[in-house]
Amino acid sequence: MDQDQKLTKTENKNLDKTPSLDQKEFKTETDFEDEKVKEIEIEIEEQEEQEQEQEQEQEQEEEEQEELKNKSKTKENKQSAISSQEFLKAVKKNEIETLKQLFLEERIEDINVQDPKDEMNPLLIAIENDNLEMVELLLKYGADPLVKGSDGWSALQHSILWGNRKIVKAMSISMQTKMQNLYKTKIPDLLKKIEKVNTFLF
Fold first, then answer.
1. Does any domain span residue 137?
2. Cα(34)–Cα(13) distance, rounded to whole angstroms?
């Protein structure tokens, strides 16, 4: 084989390896499309990140505003809360409508407050005054029938001692409701915790 033939074969091989103009253009267009897709993806990601940041900032701002409102409301309630003596005085004077309004406005801080003079709480006062309406109002807003007076007797025991059946019934219903609420909320939670502990141990 002469030298010219060898060169011709080599040139042919090189020509086979060299991509055509069409192939070059195709690859270039593909690369361009890939780059465009990547750019779009990056833009979308950046936009999503910006939106997330804006949402987080908005949520944080709303939380701060809500917190300020709650603080302001708490401050207003504390400023406008009536004193313990005023509360006890209203119970003794049977000022039902006044007390209803005070309860609605959340201006009574401690419904079971005791008079420092005789350790009487509002519920005990209402029972000794034989005032069923006052008893029912106090129970409605969370007065505790088991809070004891200076003699060591609870409001529930005093109601039985005084013998007003309607008051005793109101006290009993209040106790039953509290026990039912306890069973519905705290006891199931306690049982779940015990079950988790047992599962962990055994």
1. yes
2. 31
For residue 1, tell me if it sits in a domain. Answer: no
How does pLDDT run across 100-127, given as a tens digit for each residue?
999 998 899 899 999 988 889 999 999 9
What predicted TM-score, i.e. pTM, was given to this entire model?
0.52
Classify residue 97: in a domain, yes or no: yes
Q: Judge contact between 110 and 86, C-beta under 8 A.
A: no
What is the DSSP track for the chain?
--HHHHHHHHHHHHHHHSPPHHHHHHHHHHHHHHHHHHHHHHHHHHHHHHHHHHHHHHHHHHHHHHHHHHHHHHHHHHHHPPPHHHHHHHHHTT-HHHHHHHHHTT--S-TT---TTT---HHHHHHHTT-HHHHHHHHHTT--TT-B-TTS-BHHHHHHHHT-HHHHHHHHHHHHHHHHHHHHHHHHHHHHHHHHHHHHH-
CA–CA distance from 13 to each of 1, 10, 23 (Å)?
A: 17, 5, 17
* Domain with 166 in it: 84-201
